[in-house]
Amino acid sequence: MTSQTTLTDGGHRRSGLVLAVCCLSLLITALDTTAVNVALPAVGQDLHAPVSGLQWTVDGYTLAVAAFMLLAGSTADRIGRRRVFQTGLVLFTAGSLACSLAPGLGWLIAFRVVQGLGASMLNPVALSIITHAFPDPRERARAIGLWGTTVGLSLAAGPVVGGLLVASAGWRSIFWINIPVGVAALVLAALFVPESRAASARRPDPVGQVLVVTILTSLIFAIIEGSRQGYGSAPIIGLFVLAAAATAALPGYERRREQPLVDPVFFRSVPFTGSFIAAVTAFLVLSGFLFLNTLYLQEVRGCSALQAGLLTVPLAVGVALASPLSGRMTAARGPRLPLVTAGLLIAAAALLLTTLTPTTPWTTLLTAYVLLGIGFGLVNAPITTTAVAGMPRAQAGVSAAITTTGRQIGNNLGVAVLGAIVSARTPTPGHAGFAAASHPGWWLLAASGLLIAAIGLATTTNWATATATRVATRFPTEPTTTSRTPGVRGGAPA
Q1: Exposure string (b/e) for 191-210, b if CB count within 10 Å is 16 or more?
Q2: What is the Cα–Cα distance from 337 to 314, expressed in whole angstroms?
Q3: d(CA 15, CA 108)
């Protein structure tokens, strides 16, 4: 009895260490994103970067994450999750060091892409590792809950930590913090994270992967560079046409594959399609807000990086308070109420900023930050719930993973679209007309909030539920009888 208890305790300790390593990987990737936003004005001044250059500093990273997240998940299931996780840590840590030494804007963007490639191997793979380390459903739920709490802590700490580092040691220091944490996570992963693979490995889909990369890269490049070159110029039109052609080709190609990277059948489910669009839209709002707001606070209002970080804490507090409430609301009453409420709060927050001026009262700004934080905190749980609504259990991880990729696409589009709107109307971030130039961007975010509310209504009708049921019947219900197993295309639900 004593030896059995000791063994059990040892297993719990090991599982706890595995969870800690996975949370460390999430901490540095999430912290890095919000800290970099606070540092953008300093980067722009030091490297003489225009708005488009600052856009690429953010989007170079998020584009790599969005483009390769599904590939990383399926590769990890095939060759080993710990191996891919460690590779991601090496790339992210090395990319962070390189970013801190970047001699110019082009080098910084290139090294941010390396960081993004590493990050694409961390979060979805870490969730698969957690699922494997916690076989008991209740313990697994608690572990994933702690994982989710790390997101809120990172969002809250990122602007403040970034502001402190920029104010005390310059913008390059925001990348230094990743290095010791990344090295520690790498060592701990080698010591405590067991290797695991999927029982039925999915074959690679290189053509599908190339099409996904083509869609995202050409679209984001056209949006960002179109503000400088002109959206009617031949190269930009060509990129939009390329993105459209690849988008049209992807479902036709994937439909013919037995094991597609992205299964088009999922999008016949109205709840799934709605959740994907809501994920893109919600993260477009967050990333677009963070991009515009940090430039406004520092370049227009004259705040320091630390002051700008502290001013965004109400947003992070709103997210932290609303996230668990959203989970309880979704469990008790379904996804409609939190989704609709989230959309309306986001719209209200953006509407407060549509008349932004260099002297907008601080009470107006802080009210908008709180409303946006609560709205964003409410949106995540119902998005994931709606994504898996009606799906057989074997497809829950796959559908949630695709929706997680949608979140990353939204991160890309938020910075690209809102940055393009502003840069088309003002030459530099510090230009006197920056506040007025941002008005169309806030109107776009208000419309995005209303879209989320409409999705909450549309995806919870009886008709929508029936479409999900029809899609579910196309898949076997037992994961052991099919190669379409959860986690193969991106890990456990995120």
Answers
A1: ebbeeebbebbbeebeebbe
A2: 23
A3: 37
Question: How far, in Å, are 376, 388, 467 from residue 267 at the CA level?
Answer: 24, 12, 10
Residue 175 has pLDDT above 60, yes or no: yes
Instruction: Give the separation between CA 202 and CA 78, rounded to whole angstroms.
Output: 7
Least confident of 274-278, 458-462, 479-483: 479-483
Contact 464, 361 (CB under 8 A): no
**Within 10 A of 328 (CB to CB), how many other CB atoms are there?**
11
Average pLDDT over residues 430-445: 84
More confident residue, 224 or 446: 446
Measured CA distances, 75 to 215, 254, 429 (Å): 21, 18, 41
Q: Highest-confidence range of 37-51, 155-169, 387-401, by mean pLDDT? A: 37-51
User: Could you give phi then psi for residue 487, rounded to 5 degrees?
Assistant: 90, -15
Nearest to 420 by CA among 443, 445, 437, 408: 437
Under DSSP, the state recorded for 432 is: T
Position 187 pLDDT exceeds 80: yes
Classify residue 475 as left (phi > 0), alpha (psi -120 to 50) or beta. Answer: beta
* Pairwise CA distance, residues 284 & 274, whole Å: 15
Label residue 396 by pLDDT band (50, 70, 90): low
Instruction: Return the minimum-mean-pLDDT range out of 24-28, 241-245, 269-273, 442-446.
Output: 24-28
Scanning the structure block, which residue is given the tokens 């959206």?
231
Question: Nearest CA to 476 among 271, 274, 200?
Answer: 200
Long-range CB contacts (within 8 A, 24+) of 250-255: 250/208, 250/211, 250/212, 250/215, 253/207, 253/208, 253/211, 254/205, 254/208
Q: Which of 175, 161, 413, 433 is nearest to 291 (CA)?
A: 413
DSSP β-bridge partners for residue 487: 491
* Tokens 């996230």, residue located: 323
Tell me the H-state helices in 48-122: 51-79, 81-101, 105-120
CA 411 – CA 105 distance, rounded (Å): 21
Measured distance CA(396)–CA(493) in Å, rounded: 7
